[in-house]
Each structure stands twice: as C-alpha cells, then as structure tokens.
Design brief:
With about 160 residues, the protein is an alpha+beta fold. The protein has four helices and six strands; from the N terminus they run βββαβααββα. The two termini are about 20 Å apart.
Length: about 160
C-alpha cells in the first residue's frame, strides 16, 4: 500500500525531492494559488507551520493553475509572492496539476485515498490533506476550511 514516502516532486527551486524525507512527520499537503479569494490562507498555513513544526509538522504547498487561472506566474514569481506577502517558510513545490490526465501522481494517490464532495476530484485551490506520521492520509479538508480549524486534528496526529 503506497504512502507519502513513495512519491517525489520538483521543488519550487527546480530540484527533484523525494517525499520520503518527510517520513515520520505529520504532513499537510495543500494545492495553492496566488490570485485566489482563498490566498490569505497562506498566512494561516504559515502560522500552523510555525506553531507545530518543532513537534513534527510540515506543510507542503503545491501551486496549481487549474482553477480560474489563479496561479499564472512561473516558479520564481510564485516563490517571491509567497515570501514577500505571507512570509512563507514551509516547502513549496513547482506548479502541478491536481485533476485530470496530467495530475501529479501524488494527487492521484491523495484523491484515491480520501474522496471529497465531487468524488475524488479536487474542488478548488486550498484543498488540504492531512497525512499521519506513518505516511497514510488521515483527512481531507475543503478549500474553505481555514487552517486554524485544522489545528486540533494536527495536534491529535502529532500525539499519535
């Protein structure tokens, strides 16, 4: 049975990164966008990361331009935007697709593990998946679920 450690992704800096480097940590995987009504969630995600990183949480941001062309920039522009506007210090990755034939293998797996209101399709930017220390998907959250509403589940996963 696959776990998060079975996948890799290209970092926003261009380097291929095996996600096995996050084995044993609680991981929040989020598809992000810079020009979305939900973009201010970057601040909440950074707050969660700052609050729980020392206990074993990592947030992984995956920019996606599949919803309303709300992530039109290249990786350098995305990185600058996240850093300058929200002080993002958690790992960000290169732009990917999360739905359809071109969806990144990580997102094929996440969607299969935890379907949502639209079956397994990702509804919009800022859909979140909480992955436990064992690399399995624990929960899926709607785009409108703000990061602060996930804190209790993160604390439970960190304690498990």
């Amino acid at each position: 049975m696959p776990t998060l450690s079975d996948f890799s992704a290209r970092a926003i800096t261009g380097d291929d990164q095996p996600l096995a480097q996050y084995a044993g940590q609680v991981v929040l995987v989020v598809n992000t966008a810079s020009r979305c009504g939900l973009t201010p969630q970057y601040q909440g995600l950074e707050t969660l990361y700052g609050q729980y990183h020392g206990q074993g949480l990592v947030v992984l941001g995956f920019p996606c331009d599949q919803f309303g062309h709300q992530e039109p920039g290249d990786e350098a522009e995305i990185s600058d935007f996240c850093s300058l506007n929200y002080g993002v210090s958690f790992p960000m990755f290169a732009k990917i697709e999360v739905n359809g034939d071109g969806a990144h293998p990580l997102y094929h797996w996440l969607r299969e593990e935890k379907g949502g209101i639209l079956g397994d399709a990702i509804k919009w930017n800022f859909t979140k998946f909480l992955v436990g220390r064992d690399g399995t998907v624990l929960k899926r959250y709607a785009p409108t679920t703000t990061p602060d509403k996930i804190a209790g589940d993160i604390e439970a996963a960190l304690a498990a």
